[in-house]
From TrEMBL, chain B:
Family affiliation: Belongs to the CcmB/CycW/HelB family.
Bilayer topology term: Multi-pass membrane protein
Role: Required for the export of heme to the periplasm for the biogenesis of c-type cytochromes.
Transmembrane stretches, start-end: 39-57, 63-82, 107-129, 141-170, 177-202, 208-233
Top-level taxon of the source organism: Bacteria
UniProt name for this protein: Heme exporter protein B
Keywords: Cell inner membrane, Cell membrane, Cytochrome c-type biogenesis, Membrane, Transmembrane, Transmembrane helix, Transport
PANTHER family: CYTOCHROME C BIOGENESIS B-RELATED, HEME EXPORTER PROTEIN B
Main location: membrane
Localization per Swiss-Prot or TrEMBL: Cell inner membrane
From TrEMBL, chain C:
Assigned keywords, A-Z: Cell inner membrane, Cell membrane, Cytochrome c-type biogenesis, Membrane, Transmembrane, Transmembrane helix, Transport
Membrane-topology annotation of the record: Multi-pass membrane protein
Protein name: Heme exporter protein C
Protein family per UniProt: Belongs to the CcmC/CycZ/HelC family.
Organism (species): Microbulbifer taiwanensis
Amino acid sequence: METKVEFQFASLADFLAMDGHGIYVWIAYGVTAAALIALAVYPSLRRRQLQRELQRQQRIQQRRQQVESDRIKTAEPA
Amino acid sequence: MPSVESLSGIAPAASRAAPGFGALLKVELLLVLRKRADIANPLLFFVTVLALLPLGVGPEPELLARVAPGIIWVMALLATLLSQESLFRSDFEDGTLEQVTLSPQPLYFAVLAKTAVHWLVTGLPLALLSPLLGLMLNLPAAGYLCLFASLLLGSASLSLIGAVGAALTVALRRPGLLLALIVMPLYVPVLIFGTGAVQAAIDGYAYSAQLAILAALLAAAAALAPLAAAGAIRISVDN
Amino acid sequence: MAWQWFHRLGSPRWFYERTGVWLPWLALASLVLLTVGSVWGLGFAPQDAKQGNSYRIIYIHVPAAFLALAGYYIMAISGAIGLIWKMKLSFAVMRAAAPIGAVLTFVALFTGAIWGKPTWGTYWVWDARITSMLILLFLYIGVIALARAFSREQVADKACALLALVGTVNIPIIYKSVDWWFTLHQPATIKLTQSSSIDPSMFYPLLTMIVGFYCLYTWTLIAHTRTLVLQREWRTQWVQQELAEGNRGGD
């Protein structure tokens, strides 16, 4: 026994309309897709955020060291 | 309001079962009875909000009778919840809680004693007050006994479940709404069977099954909730 | 000796390095399965005799509901492992599982509500399953809110684990009681799905979607845990190196 799998709708317009239920079906699928994509994308966004944070902290640290060494240099002659 | 003396009869029996439990019970009760306002506030809240209800939905007796069991139960639930925030607070702030966790007595019984006292000063008075509120809300005559019994059993479960939330949030500065958020979903079964029992009684059916389930929930809560609360206290105190 | 793998699993660094290899495959598997399942379910599965085309929402509603519930248990179990064996990584898994589970619960609720409109004529019914889902969402929100309330992560971890465990004990009781409550108030209305008598032509796409959702769940759980590990091991050398490399191995 083989069940035939075939496209259930006559045209693309039919497929989108789904006998008047299209709006419900497509909203449900759309919101689900958006939620799942958000879940999938969040980690890489967060990672980039952490990277920027690290760079910022490293810059601050470098500048602090710079200022420190400058001060020692200017202080030496006196 | 039960006096300390009336409880001292239970105390020796309790201390044989769990050393120190009777003494804990007595001390807690004494402490609570000194702060009368803390006892009165949940009850006043209960009555005040229920007085607001007819102002909101209208005074038709049929309508009030229809919603009375559910509303009385929900308000009892909220009153218990609101009073629970302070359950461990002062003990946490003055360091008593830390002493209790270090003592050789199992923390389980300390939590159980505290919760029992909490129930004695909120759940029990709420149940005692409920017939009066039933009267104000035109509760059908068949529902009174069941309302009282279900509140008596149910509010003890509510106190026990709420103690877990109170223990989890005791280290936070403003736990009020958070406590409600984490505890209310756990209250659902008690609420369902409590109101279910009263509704069955009003409709003229047998309600002993619902009361039996409430009693079973209470037994489970009494066995498990103090354990969870004790764990939560250790987490909060170690912090 | 036999426990060595277990303790190694507890090391955030080991986890991070090992799972990096799996992620692309999991992502690919979930993408393929979900695409195939959706196209199959939307276009090729036969129409339902009673509900027409609106039943096609089942292909996302049911898998989301499955994972919403399973996710709570995964969260609670990893919390318990963290409490018992004091395993840092396990707590990270628990914390990552909370928002993912909440999102999936929301998806299940939302699609259920949308489905309700053509089926029952209203967006919201206090149906037993929908109500249980709503309470599950509240349980998730409780865990997330509790986690945010603490300033120290270690305390937050333990408190959340305990709350998740308490919730786990309660979930079966809540489900049973809501079920009882529903039969009391609304006897014999429309059953949402007759899963026992579902036709194979409708069932295979559903199965594809369920497997796809499981893959997606595993993928996102690992990915979220990895970022949490990076955040928590912020001060260690390997994390700083990992972040500095930037372009390589971006997930």
